[in-house]
Design brief:
Blueprint (H helix, E strand, L loop, with lengths): L14 H5 L13 E3 L6 H4 L12 E8 L5 H12 L12 H8 L3 H13 L3 E5 L5 E7 H8 L3 E6 L2 E6 L4 E3 L6 E5 L9 E2 L49 H9 L10 E7 L5 H11 L10 E5 L6 H4 L1 H18 L4 E7 L4 H14 L4 E4 L1 E4 L5 H16 L3 E5 L7 H4 L5 E2 L7 E10 L5 E6 L1 E7 L6 E9 L3 E7 L12 E4 L2 E4 L6 E9 L2 E9 L2 H19 L7 H6 L6 E2 L9 E7 L9 E7 L20 E2 L10
Parallel strand pairs: 10-12, 10-13, 11-12, 13-15, 15-17, 17-23
Antiparallel strand pairs: 1-7, 2-4, 2-8, 3-4, 5-6, 9-14, 14-16, 17-18, 19-20, 19-28, 21-22, 24-25, 26-29, 27-28
Helix pairs in contact: 3-12, 7-10, 8-10, 10-14, 11-12
Length: about 625
């Protein structure tokens, strides 16, 4: 069931306000100017311009307005409601109260609008609650108004234009503006952290619980497989299901998330999600969805399908929905589908989440490397996270699936938004859940792959393939809640870790297009895309137990770092890895079966350690998290 199509509606701006005298008089050319932070992207500083952009060319951009009272005051208020022990702890606001207290005033919007118009820039609309003004004008007008130069660059394989310096505005206007976004025309899209899955199913053999089947022979039962470093490894699991995860992580708690709403954001919307998720839940003991328990709020029109591969996002949505329900069968789920995988569309979707204020927890399994994150978009995202924190909404983001990102980008770095101090970054483990539903071991998710040699007698190393994202942010200093736990001076991720290894991943059910038709089938999937919704579902039980929203989770997580609510993931696993059997064509055995060893706990330069580490954070949550004190 849908709760209505969504889009960000532009409204004609403030002419009446100007006429009523709400706006300040235009600043004169002699008015002192101030350059605004977060308005020039870092890549510009080390790129050589290819000349000035045409003065007659057009810039279309957003001017984000500062919250009433200023951004620093809002951050101080967030610290008060989020920090255990303060008098304001968990004294959250409704969305209406937030907007009444923090929305930019009509007079502020009118002042900025009048100044823009006085500089030959056209204000075409304003976002709801006056978050930003949509603006367009010639590059010549932009150069003059903002005391910068729009220049041409070659960036990210494209010819783009961007401001060569941070923008400057009159000192009287500067406190009213938080950032200016869009002068850099580099298209920016995010990626989900689950592999695209059109027409995919797992090969056999595989195990229904960890260690069930030893990998002594191939699927024919006769052709032997070699040992790995002198030991026989188990076959990978076919995929864990809800009852297995609940037993391992929750201890089969009587809590089920009832009364709690979890939001999920992704791009697009799977047309079969309701049918698929109900079929999966019925098949695997998670309990069918009640009427209205799963609803969708999607963009009015989907765009950029060629760039974004919607079918891959269908798999992501399916994983997220089914993982939350597996951990919290009683929780309500609201899925928000963005118009595309581009940054502004995901940002607008998160804005809908906080304005609707339906959810206590918001899980997100997408992002991009910090190098591609623009200062203006970071500022815009952060205002959404701050609003959510004031309303008691906790944001979770998967930490990424490329380890330290060195192999994929040439630079060791973390992802964003997962590195933002106002969200919880969820890293990854490799989980061995035995027949009794308990952990035989947990270790860090980091995979080195070995393929079966052509003669079938040995394993050939292929190197690092994937692992939980983590490390030190290049954008943020260490937040105070990490003091005493994290030694680095910078924001360090992840904060927690749950099952993410695709070799020990979750069995999910989805309608897919196969060579012989389109129909429902099931397959194993992982990545930190799994870890984030697992933690959201688990924390829905904590929310149910508390009887109140929890808000930003990190202060409580770090206050409980050594309370026993988290299992410190350390040591050497019983097995060096698992053997995986995969169809060569992803669908059936007609083209043969490929065998490989997926070794555990080899995450690029990242490593598990005693206490906090950059693979699993403070550790893996256990049943103690459900009842742990606030801090």
């Amino acid at each position: 069931m849908k709760i209505g199509k969504r889009s960000l509606t532009a409204v004609t701006v403030v002419g009446a306000l100007v006429a009523a005298g709400a706006a300040a008089a235009p600043a004169s050319a002699a008015t002192p100017k101030r350059r605004l932070a977060h308005t020039q992207n870092t890549w510009v500083q080390h790129s050589k311009a290819q000349g000035n952009a045409s003065a007659k060319g057009t810039s279309t951009f957003r001017v984000y307005l500062a919250p009433r009272g200023g951004l620093d005051a809002l951050k101080a208020d967030v610290a008060k409601v989020s920090t255990p022990g303060t008098s304001s702890y968990r004294h959250f606001l409704s969305a209406q109260q937030y907007h009444a207290q923090y929305d930019p005033t009509a007079a502020s919007a009118a002042s900025v609008t009048q100044w823009l118009r006085s500089n030959d820039l056209k204000v075409t609309g304003t976002a709801a609650h006056r978050r930003y003004l949509s603006v367009t004008g010639t590059n010549a007008a932009v150069n003059k108004a903002f005391s910068t130069t729009i220049k041409k660059y070659q960036h990210d394989g494209r010819s783009v234009q961007a401001n060569s310096t941070p923008v400057a505005v009159p000192s009287s206007i500067a406190p009213l503006i938080s950032t200016v976004s869009g002068l850099d025309t580099t298209p920016r899209k995010v990626t989900h952290n689950a592999a695209p899955s059109p027409g995919f199913r797992n090969a056999r053999p595989c195990s229904r619980f960890y260690g069930q089947m030893a990998a002594t022979n191939q699927a024919d039962g006769r052709t032997p497989l070699p040992k790995f470093k002198g030991k026989t490894l188990p076959y990978a699991v076919c995929g864990y299901t809800g009852p297995q995860y609940r037993a391992a992580y929750e201890g089969n708690s009587a809590l089920n998330g009832s009364g709690v709403t979890v939001a999920i954001t992704d791009a697009y919307a799977s047309p079969t999600i309701v049918k698929d998720s109900n079929t999966y839940a019925t098949n695997h003991g998670d309990g069918a969805y009640r009427t209205g328990q799963l609803i969708q709020s999607v963009a009015g029109k989907f765009t950029k399908q060629k760039d974004c591969n919607p079918s891959g996002w269908y798999g992501e949505e399916t994983l997220d929905v089914e993982a939350v329900h597996a951990m919290a069968p009683g929780a309500r789920i609201v899925y928000y589908g963005a118009a595309s995988c581009y940054d502004n569309d995901l940002l607008d979707t998160l804005t809908n989440v906080v304005d609707d204020n339906l959810a206590s927890l918001v899980t997100n399994s997408w992002g991009d490397v910090e190098e591609n994150s623009t200062a203006d978009s970071v500022a815009a995202y952060e205002q959404v996270f701050l609003q959510g924190a004031m309303q008691g909404q906790g944001f979770l983001f998967s930490s990424g699936d490329a380890g330290d990102d060195l192999a994929s980008t040439g630079i060791k770095q973390t992802d964003y938004p997962t590195s933002d101090p106002y969200v919880t970054s969820v890293g990854g483990t490799s989980d061995a859940i035995g027949q009794a539903g308990t952990f035989l071991f947990q270790t860090g998710w980091g995979t080195n792959k070995y393929s079966l040699s052509s003669d079938g007698t040995s394993w050939t190393p292929l190197g690092f393939t994937s692992g939980a994202g983590g490390g030190q942010s290049g954008l943020f200093n260490r937040p105070s809640y990490q003091d005493g736990v994290v030694s680095s001076a910078y924001r360090s991720i992840p904060d927690v870790g749950l099952d993410a290894d695709p070799t020990t991943g979750m069995l999910i059910g989805q309608t897919q297009a196969f060579s012989d038709g389109t129909y429902y089938d099931e397959y194993r999937l992982g990545g930190t895309s799994l870890a984030s919704p697992l933690f959201a579902g688990l924390t829905a039980l904590r929310t149910q137990k508390a009887g109140t929203r929890l808000g930003a989770l990190n202060p409580s997580i770090y206050a409980n770092a050594t309370s026993g609510a988290f299992t410190d993931v350390k040591g050497t696993p019983k097995d060096a890895g698992n053997v995986r059997a995969d169809f060569a064509n992803q669908q059936d055995a007609s083209n043969g079966i490929l065998y490989s060893v997926r070794a555990f706990n080899l995450d690029s330069s990242l490593a598990i350690a005693k206490g906090w580490d950059d693979v699993t954070g403070v550790g893996s949550p256990n049943p103690g998290w459900l009842t742990a004190p606030a801090g």
